[in-house]
Amino acid sequence: MLILSRKINEKIMIGDNITISIIDIKGDQIRLGVEAPRHVKVFRQEVFAEIEAENKAAAQSALLNQL
User: What 3-state DSSP class applies to 41?
Assistant: First the structure.
């Protein structure tokens, strides 16, 4: 894992076309801005995990329905 220190209004580049900006810092929370092409999906980790679980359940259900 790469660990970087940034201040408000500083940015991190990922590849050529994804930019992460530090928008605000309050206590133990930060606000990030993400600039990415429309085809790149950006999710919070907990939302991504929920989507994966729903997709897995749907796939299992479809498999059971085929039997």
Answer: coil
Q: Is 37 helix (H, G, I), strand (E, B) or coil?
A: coil
> Count of CB atoms within 10 A of residue 5's CB?
5
Domain ranges of the chain: 11-66
pLDDT in the model for residue 12: 98
Phi-psi domain of 4 (left: phi exceeds 0; alpha: psi -120 through 50; beta: other): beta
- Averaged over successive runs of 10 residues, the pLDDT of the chain (67 residues) comes to 96 97 96 97 96 93 81
CA–CA separation, 5 vs 14, rounded Å?
Answer: 15
Would you say the pTM of this structure is higher than 0.90? no
SS3 of residue 58 by DSSP: helix
